[in-house]
Design brief:
Pnp Oxidase, Chain A, 183 residues, eight-stranded antiparallel beta sheet
Amino acid sequence: MGKVYEVIDDRLADWLKKQHMFFVATAPLSESGSINCSPKGGDSFRILGDTEVAYQDLTGSGVETIAHLRENARIVVMFCAFEGPPKIVRLHGKGTVITEGHEEFDNLAEKFTPHVGARSIIHIAVNRISDSCGYSVPLFEFRGDRDILDKWSENKGEEALKQYRQSNNAVSIDGLPGLESDA
C-alpha cells in the first residue's frame, strides 16, 4: 500500500500541486508541550527541488509552528486527496523560519504571490517522503479559496499587522519564543 520515495519526482510533484489544502504538524521537545496541526490552503506551497519545499506563512492567531521550528526544526506536511483517487502524502523534514531581513527571504518571497499578511516563509529540507492509501479520507468538492484573511490583513494595514504579531505571535501557547518583535 504505502511507498517511500527518494525524491519528489515529476509525477508526485504534479499530484501535490493539484491539492487545494495541506496540513502542517509540529511539536515542542517537552512532553507536556502542545502538539500543533494547522491547515493551510490557497496558492501557498512550492516545490523548490527534489527534497526541498516551502510554504508562505500568513499571520494567524498563534505562532506554534514557528516556535516549534525554532526550538527543534521538526515538521511534517501532509496532503490528502479529497477529490479523485485516494492518496495521502507526508513530507517529513527539518524546517527553517525565514522572515523579512533573512538573507534568503527575498529570493523565496518572489516565488509566491505577495500577501499583506505574510509573516514568514517556512523552508523545509525534506528527509522522508511517503504515501499511504487514504481509503478512509472522505470525498469533498472544492468550491474555492477563502479571502477573509487577505481582506482582514489589508484592512489592518502593515503597521497594525506588525503590532498584532507583536501582541499575538511573540510566544507560543507553551511560552516558546515565536516571532521577533520586528517581524
